[in-house]
């Protein structure tokens, strides 16, 4: 538990470090928490490749609120926010510590809105723990989650992310977890893994814009036409990506991984590092 001790002994002030990468992951099905597949192997590799963080701040598609909250408890619970899956998935517990200190640090940094503390309602939802469990199976890195204010615009979320940039230089891994293409309404449950031409097309367009650092069309995704509307029927899985793009700095480089899709879901993920 050395990471937690490091945070506590600085009484809410995180140590300076080399600038941490930031990461967006397509998290897909909760079953990825207990299966071994291409995506989980990508997350395993990511955990080995990254500098070990002092703490993690995760923006997950699965915590929507009015206002912006961060978890601020010592020991966040593992939330099984899904139904209809095998019993062994509900048995999974990811017992990583929380960090009230990082919650305080985040509140101090953000001027765009009043960050509110959640002490007992939330915890770690599957958008967070199903991924981080594969990256850091020892559960020894403190984690907090930041909620998505679903009353705010994509531009607002992108701008809010910029206020978190200082955390990158304090050993904090900022992780966005969602899917850049996510439309469960259009899944063909008789052939879940069929390839859809429109999914491939809009995913490729998103990647080109990301690679070109052309963020404006990604923020104003409604202007990208019918395929974008199919890809993003509701914004909660898309917005975590905008947080990570908002943290990109001038000299940062982007690398993609888990670059795949099934049906109307894109698992394409990327790391930004400098």
From TrEMBL:
<dbReference type="InterPro" id="IPR014436">
    <property type="entry name" value="Extradiol_dOase_DODA"/>
</dbReference>
<keyword id="KW-0223">Dioxygenase</keyword>
<dbReference type="Pfam" id="PF02900">
    <property type="entry name" value="LigB"/>
</dbReference>
<feature type="domain" description="Extradiol ring-cleavage dioxygenase class III enzyme subunit B">
    <location>
        <begin position="52"/>
        <end position="253"/>
    </location>
</feature>
<dbReference type="GO" id="GO:0050297">
    <property type="term" value="F:stizolobate synthase activity"/>
</dbReference>
<keyword id="KW-0560">Oxidoreductase</keyword>
<keyword id="KW-0479">Metal-binding</keyword>
<comment type="similarity">
    <text>Belongs to the DODA-type extradiol aromatic ring-opening dioxygenase family.</text>
</comment>
<protein>
    <submittedName>
        <fullName>4,5-DOPA dioxygenase extradiol</fullName>
        <ecNumber>1.13.11.29</ecNumber>
    </submittedName>
</protein>
<keyword id="KW-0862">Zinc</keyword>
<dbReference type="InterPro" id="IPR004183">
    <property type="entry name" value="Xdiol_dOase_suB"/>
</dbReference>
